[in-house]
Amino acid sequence: MSESNKVAEYLTPEKLAEHANIRSEVKAHLPELRAEARAAIEEARQTGMPRKAAVAQLRGERKRQGLSDEEMMARSGLDAAALASMSGHDACPTIKTMEAYARALGRKLLIVSADEEPRA
Q1: Which of 30, 71, 74, 97 could form a disulfide with 67 if both were Cys (CB 3.0 to 4.6 A apart)?
Q2: How many CB atoms lie within 10 A of CB 93?
Q3: 34: helix, coil or strand?
């Protein structure tokens, strides 16, 4: 069966209507979702975020921009080892590395010093 036949078989009138309904629901909620996202971003800008969250946010931005290791090294001036320090669940890059990484993405790293939350 050709690829076009598979698509035509899948996209029945019922499926097309179902997809249209889903798109309509998403479109209806989009302004609310965008407002929530903007509020969360603004709060993070004002109150800061934990290091792991900042590293994850930078990695997400890199993924969104679709940049390879080579492109990141060229833009940031970081070597492969420094770039690798931004990877993995237990990433622990230096501030200098995070600043260069952020600049390569057209971002700026801001550091906020805040009181620790009381421990229970």
Answers
A1: 71
A2: 21
A3: helix
